[in-house]
Each structure stands twice: as structure tokens, then as C-alpha cells.
Amino acid sequence: MSRPADNRAQFRPEDHPNDHFLLTTVVGSYPKPKWLNRADELVDDEESKFDEDDLKEAHDDAARVITHEHERCGLDTVVDGEVRRNEMVEFFADRIDGYEFNGPVKVWGHNYFDKPSVSAEVSYDEPWLVEEFEFTDSVATHPVKVPITGPYTLGNWAFNEAYDTEEELVYELADLVNIEVERLVEAGAKYIQIDEPALATTPDDHAIVGEALDRIVSGIPEEVRIGLHVCYGDYSRIYPELNDYPIDEFDIELCNGGYEQIDVLTEPEFVPDLALGVVDVHTAEVETVEEIKENIKQGLKVVPPERLTISPDCGLKLLPRDVAYGKMENMVQATREVEAELDAGEIDLDEPLPLAE
Amino acid sequence: MTERVATTPGLFPLPDRAKQQLSDLKGHQKGDLISGSEGGQIAAAYEEYRGEVIAEQQSTGLDRIVEGQLRWDDMLAHPLTTHDNVSAKGIVRYYDNNNFYRDPVVEGDLTFSGDVAGELDAATALLEEGDALQATLPGPYSLFDLATDEHYGDDAEFFEAVAEFLGGEVEAFPDHETLFLLEPSLVENAPDEDHQEQLAEAVDAVASETDADVVVHTYFGALDEKTYAHLMDADVEALGFDLVAGDREDTLSNITEFGTKDAAALGIADGQNTLVESAETLDERVAWFEDQIPVQEFDRLYLSTNTEPFYLPVNKHREKLAAIAAAANTDEEEVTA
Fold first, then answer.
1. Which residues on neighbouring strands pair with residue B213, listed in sequence order?
2. CA–CA separation, B141 vs B138, rounded Å?
3. CB within 8 Å: B275 and A159
4. Residue spans per domain, chain A
5. Cα–Cα distance between B272 and A166 in angstroms, integer?
6. pLDDT per residue rounded down to tens, chain B (337 residues)
7. In chain B, whose CA is at the least distance from the CA of A103?
8. CATH classification for the domain delimited by B3-336, as one of 3.20.20.210, 3.30.420.40, 3.90.230.10, 3.30.450.20
9. Size of interface A-B (CB pairs under 8 A)
10. What pTM was estimated for this model as a whole?
11. Rounded CA gap, A172 and A179, in Å?
12. What does the alpha-carbon distance between residue B67 and residue B54 come to, in Å, rounded to a whole number?
């Protein structure tokens, strides 16, 4: 069952201008400043004086800049743009005992992925994200969300040498994610997002993801908000099963597909809160406020306003930085305008958008 | 006495140095991938790495040498994505993997290309005395399945055109000992009744164009019964089976029910996992297969990874090739001992 908690109100800013409150957030990644990419390369250059301490300082600076950039957009909850992370599996595999790297493998064309191998039992060694969270939290004036790659993706996007089945590996990893979430909560984190893009490619494994989520949230207080992000999938393959997931919020892209799948989520009734992607991360044009408002209303077909979160489709890291900023700024403005229209009773919640012709 | 032949389906991972160098030379975008008209530094780089992977096979002791198919950016769709009358369009998922290829949209007649023959000519020049060349192509059904037709307008006609196209390519190949036709689509997207009826004829249209031994290799699991029965009608030396996949018992029941050819290809090493099976483990897998088919002694067994090996990092792929070569030699050592 979905978690019974109502833990959304804690993210409502004190000076929020409207009675209605649609929580605005980001999925996580954001374009890195160009100089940070240079710094990442420079530290490997033996002829350079630029060392690991310098790189840490550069990462701190970048995290501060992106966190503040999110705040300037007006987002209710912020992330540091994942500027310290290289790739969503590699970063964690590097920190989990049991993984090893053997070299890049092809994804398509000349795009490669340093796909790790699980060559021994996985175990928890050092914290993965606690320092990252503590730093971001210390520089942010808004609540911080922490995205974590989920155990299904950490297992499915690696070579499994050590476990009889992938399922077994995924559950072991879920227990490690649970430890990490506990540590983050101890450090003060209130909003955790589990990223499971691999579920979109193998939707038949939805029950494994469900069991993994049960393990992840075990012992985690209900005031901690737990989201699940999945993207670019056929949601009819995992709906309504996802209604049983122990999450507060389900976060998906649908803008990219023109909301063709939105009706999938309306029958039977959607159980968790919906975090809906309202800007496309695969187009470099900034959507207008008016367009985004229409997209937000798509979400109102599925859940009432008090259960709707507003988000971009996915991580923004592949966009030009000014475009990413423009999308977030317009997204927040559109959200505030929809809230005001809801306050004024101008949106018909039974029929938020004109019916398709 | 069963002869064991150590081989590979081809489509090797690019050497790590090549990954970086070719990506710098070609670029990262869809339009930067191989179109078949490359020259200059790009062609020179491929030539160098072709030499590298052939030398590797020679020193590992494989019984068949493949060209390596390092240019096949679009994996099994390559023979079409390099064709003049085909446009390489959107990026689509390659079977059930986290890999993608450009959708080959056929917009005109599938005339003779010669792209693969050119690669094999180059490989032939690098062979040493006693080396046996193995050519690799997608099987006609898989290539048909991976492509989009905007020209022929009729499925049956398009399937036939793909088979005839492949036959024309094979006719231009230099001398080769073996031809592997890779047919994963027969498992992943099994043919409907009409395509089953056409299957043997399509395979024969390719196989009849060579004097070499032809192996139709299947993977990602077992074939369904009907597809298997129709494939058995094809006039080829051997069918290939995935013995790593969990449903290998289904493969055995197909063989028990419908028989098989006098030779077989066995995918015994996992082409999609870095765990390196020892030669002993591979040998046990071969023995297991032979034990399960007691009515038949095979003339020849080709041993290889189950899938194309491009999914693997280079170091593990090398180790797997060495283990396969050792497993193929196990029997001979026992006999001479």
C-alpha cells in the first residue's frame, strides 16, 4: 500500500502566495558549469598543479551555484544538480563494495557506459550521499531533495557475476539503499527520490521493484517523503500495480509523449501523489508559461491539486544551461498561476482540460 | 568422433583505444556513424583495429577467424544502414537490451552493396597460412525484422528482397570456410505463420550462394516449436543454440522432437556477462548437451559465446575467447594423452 503519510505540507514556503499549493521540484541532474567539466579533467592531468583538494573546492562551488540557481527559479525544493556525480550507476557502484569496473561497453554508436560488474557480495562501506546532502542543506534556504539511484537499476545496469539471480542482487542492494536512506534521514533529509529508469525497459519486473521498495522504506519515518522516478516507459505495463508501492509520490515524464499515456493512470484511481513532468528535457526550446499551464492541468485529471507535484520530465543535464534555467523559471511561474486560478475557482476539477475532439 | 571448432559469432567490442579515437574522429551524433563511405583517417583506424582483433584471434587459437565487424555501429542492422537506398533514421532499442541502433528505413530497391565483402577482402589479406575465415551476417529474418520497409509495401515481398540482397552480398565474398547467419529475431520476435512458411526458402536464398558451411545461429533463448520445425527445412550445415539461456531445456525438446543437423553450434559462454566461465565449465556444458542428445553423434560442434560479444568489456571478452579455445581443445588433448 502507498504510505499513508501526509508529508507534503512541510515543503510549503511560509510566504507561499496562494491557498493552493502544488509542490515544485526537479528530478535531480542539471547542466554542469563548463568550468567544472574542465576541472574534472584537469585533476587527471599529471602536469597540472590542480589536485583533489582543488577539485573538491570546485565541486562545492558548483553545488552552491546550482542550488542557488534552483532557488532563484523559485522551486520549492532544490537539488545541487548532482554536480558531484559522473553517471547514475557508476557513482554508486564506485562506493559499494562488491562492484568492479572492467572498461566501457557500447550503448549506441560511440556512446559508452562504464558498466560495472558485481563480482562479489555487495556491502555497505562508506556513506554515499550524506556529505553531499549536508553541504547542499547548509547552503540552501529551501528544503533539499536527495535523488538516489534505485537498487533495481543498480542491479539491472550491471553485470551480475556473484548472485544466482538478479532478483537476489536487487534485494541485497535495496537493503544497502535502506541503510543510506536512514543515514540521510539522521542527517536531516526529508525528501528522498528513488530513481528506477531500468523499470521502464523491463516492466515485467514491477513486483521485484515493489519488494525492493518495501525494504528501502523499512523503518523510515512517515514524515520523510519518498518518491519514485521512472521515465520513458509504457505505463500500462506497471499500472495499476504501482498503486501498491510503499511510496508517497510517483514521478514520471509524460510531456515528451504529449500526455498520450495520462489516461492510463486514471482507472482505477491513482493512489500515491503524482509528480508530473510538465517540460520536455529532450527539446532545447523553452516552453511558454501558457503551454506549461495546460500540461499541469493534465495532472489534475489524475489527482486533485493537493496531491499534485510539478516537475520536469527527467534530469536536465543534457540541455544548455540557460535553457534549463528558462524551463524551470517558466515551470514555477505556470504553477503559481494555476494555483491562483484554482484559488479563484477558475479551473473545473472534474474537467480540467477541454475533452479531446 | 566429434570435431570441436572454437569460434565466435563476430561483432567484437571495439578495443578501448579505438572507442576514444573513433569517437573523436567520427563524432557522437546519429549522423556521424558509419555510412559505408568513410575514408582517410577513419578508414585507416578501422584497418589498424581490424588487424588487432584478427591477431588476437590467431594468438588465442580460434579455429575460425572473423573480421570482427568493428564498423558495425548499428550491430546486425549494419548491412542495411550502409546501403545507398536505405536511410538510417531514429534510434531504436536493440532487442531487449540497453543498446540502440539506427532504424534502417528501406526506401528503394535492395541492390548489391558489397560493403561486407569489402571488409572480408581486407580480413583475408591479414590471414596466415592455415587460417580459416568465417563470414558473419544477420540472417534474413532478423535483418527483415530489424528494418522498416517504405518501398516494397508487402511483408512477404520485403522478406524475400532482404534474403535475396543477403544472397547477393554472399556471392561477392572472398573464400571463406564458414558463414554464420545470426538469427536472434527468430527467438525475440518469432515469425508468424506466413513468415514461417517463407523461412527455409529465405535462408536457402542466402546459403545457396556459398560453398562454405553455413550455420544459422539463434540466441536470447529457445525457438518455439513451429519456428524450429520450419528452420530445419533449410539446407544448411548446422543450427546454433543458446545454451546459456534459462530455457535451454526447450531447445533440447525441439531437437528431440524434430531432430537437428549433423553439426551444431553451441553458445556456451555468456556473451552478456563478465563472469568468465572456465574451460572446464564450458566443456561440461558441451558434454551436458551431448549427453542429452544420445541418439546422435555430431560430426562437428562449433563452440562460441551465445550472443555477439560486443556487450562485454574488452578484457573479459579476451578471456572468454581463450576459454572457448581451450574447451574446444579439451577433447583432442584427452585423445592424444
1. B178
2. 8
3. yes
4. 17-343
5. 13
6. 899 999 999 999 999 999 999 999 998 778 889 999 999 999 999 999 999 999 999 999 999 999 999 999 999 999 999 999 999 988 888 998 889 999 999 999 999 999 999 999 999 999 999 999 999 999 999 999 999 999 999 999 999 999 999 999 999 999 999 999 999 999 999 999 999 999 999 999 999 999 999 999 999 999 999 999 999 999 999 999 999 999 999 999 999 999 999 999 999 999 999 999 999 999 999 999 999 998 889 999 999 999 999 999 999 999 999 999 999 998 555 544 3
7. B313
8. 3.20.20.210
9. 65
10. 0.90
11. 11
12. 7
What is the ipTM for the molecules in this complex?
A: 0.91
* A17-343 placed in CATH 1.10.530.10: no
| Nearest CB to B98 within list A102, A107, A110 | A107
Other beta carbons within 10 angstroms of residue B236's beta carbon come to: 21
Inter-chain residue contact B13 with A159, CB threshold 8 Å: no
Residue of A89, A108, A117, A160 to mutate when probing chain B, most B C-beta within 10 A: A108
Candidate from B99, B315, B316 with C-beta closest to A107: B99
Q: Could B312 and A105 be called an inter-chain contact, meaning their C-beta atoms sit closer than 8 Å?
A: yes
Determine whether the interchain pair A109/B33 forms a contact, defined as Cβ–Cβ distance below 8 Å. yes
Given CB atoms, is A44 within the 8 Å cutoff of chain B?
Answer: no
Q: Give the position of cell 566429434.
A: B2
Q: Does A108 touch chain B (CB under 8 A)?
A: yes
Chain B residues close to A109, C-beta within 8 Å? 28-30, 32-33, 73
DSSP conformation letters of B192-219: -HHHHHHHHHHHHHHHTT-SSEEEEE--
